[in-house]
Task: inverse folding
């Protein structure tokens, strides 16, 4: 066994520990990034894994605290964000998530102009500017060069749903710049064997695809589906309806952008069933955009099944959550696990964190099993 594999809990020499900063770049300075950046400062003083801290799954991952995460580069295409310090840009329109840490220090990291490609749906221009994207006239930055110059180790993709070309562009940029990649949207990169192999060949870890919420529609639907199945209840029909008021839901009014999103959410729930349901009997997907909800997402779940004696059982649930902090609650851990993989020189798809934090990982497990795998990965008992 190599020396790297023998070092459990990420125990490194003094020389290796000299710079513990996790240098992160972000593509997309929207609501999700706003919650992530606020959270980095909100939890800055959390030091150990002994105390229970509301909102965190792990205070420390390996030797890495939340305060070790440093944003070193950010890209966006909106004129209200490009050129501004990230501490200011995240509060610009159309961002609308709740502010839980306002007094961010100036970071010196300015948002650079990204590449639009298919990142903005054509229907978005029909809506008021404060609700949609307004493209900057700035020339696109050389993303690969910016990643190298910033010494970014990890690139996070927060592209809008349906941004196939844009996501592939940033995945390629990560490969060229030598960055690990965390794909938070339902474009299949990490769960695609060809893409995963590219990262493996370069010795770069990747986590994806399509971030789960900390407590959100899909994780709750998955858990209930697994409960029904484990308790011998046959599920005949089910739906999950979601609506909200942020740019994500406005973007998804374009139904042609929803193909991969629907696949991702549906497969995530179906993987927990003893028997897959027909297209007619399982409906999962975003339903509408309601502006006044802002970053609040409302979810309705209905499940119809048969228990002992073939007697019917029905469940209806309403869930209301602030969407973007839900995402950040998982990304804050995914970043540190990507860093562990970099330290251990592991390349390719990271199965454990992907299965726990993502809706469409390379392989589905129950959430209990995924959590067990994640804990083993952190301790160095599981390679990927």
Result:
């Amino acid at each position: 066994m190599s020396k790297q594999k023998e070092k459990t809990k990420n125990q490194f020499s003094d020389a290796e520990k000299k710079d513990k900063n996790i240098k992160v770049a972000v593509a997309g300075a929207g609501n999700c990034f706003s919650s992530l950046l606020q959270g980095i400062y909100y939890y800055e003083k959390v030091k150990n894994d002994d105390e229970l801290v509301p909102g965190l799954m792990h205070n420390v991952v390996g030797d890495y605290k939340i305060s070790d995460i440093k944003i070193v580069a950010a890209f966006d295409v909106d004129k209200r964000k490009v050129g501004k310090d990230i501490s200011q840009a995240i509060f610009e329109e159309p961002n609308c998530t709740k502010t839980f840490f306002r007094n961010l220090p100036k970071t010196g990291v300015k948002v650079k102009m990204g590449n639009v490609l298919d990142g903005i749906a054509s229907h978005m221009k029909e809506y008021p500017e404060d609700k949609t994207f307004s493209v900057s006239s700035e020339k696109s930055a050389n993303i690969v060069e910016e990643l190298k110059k910033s010494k970014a180790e990890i690139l996070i993709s927060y592209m809008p749903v349906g941004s196939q070309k844009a996501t592939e562009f940033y995945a390629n940029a990560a490969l060229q710049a030598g960055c690990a990649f965390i794909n938070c949207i339902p474009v299949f990169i990490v769960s695609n064997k060809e893409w995963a192999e590219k990262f493996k060949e370069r010795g770069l870890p990747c986590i994806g695809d399509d971030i789960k919420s900390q407590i959100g529609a899909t994780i709750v639907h998955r858990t209930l589906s697994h409960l029904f199945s484990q308790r011998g209840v046959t599920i005949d029909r089910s739906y999950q309806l979601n609506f909200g008021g942020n740019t994500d839901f406005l973007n998804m009014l374009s139904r042609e952008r929803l193909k991969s999103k629907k696949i991702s959410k549906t497969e995530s729930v179906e993987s927990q069933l003893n028997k897959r349901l027909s297209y007619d009997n399982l409906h999962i997907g975003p339903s509408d955009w309601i502006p006044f909800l802002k970053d609040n997402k409302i979810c309705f779940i209905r499940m119809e099944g048969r228990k002992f004696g073939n007697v019917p059982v029905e469940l209806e649930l309403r869930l209301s959550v602030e969407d973007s902090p839900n995402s950040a609650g998982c990304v804050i851990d995914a970043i540190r696990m990507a860093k562990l993989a970099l330290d251990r020189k592991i390349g390719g798809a990271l199965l454990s964190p992907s299965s726990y934090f993502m809706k469409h990982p390379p392989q589905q497990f129950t959430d209990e099993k995924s959590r067990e795998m994640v804990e083993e990965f952190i301790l160095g008992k599981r390679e990927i």
About this structure: The domain at 3-213+325-379 is CATH 3.40.50.720 (Rossmann fold). The chain has two domains: 3-213+325-379, 217-323. The longest strand covers residues 234-244. DSSP finds 13 helices and 13 strands in the chain.
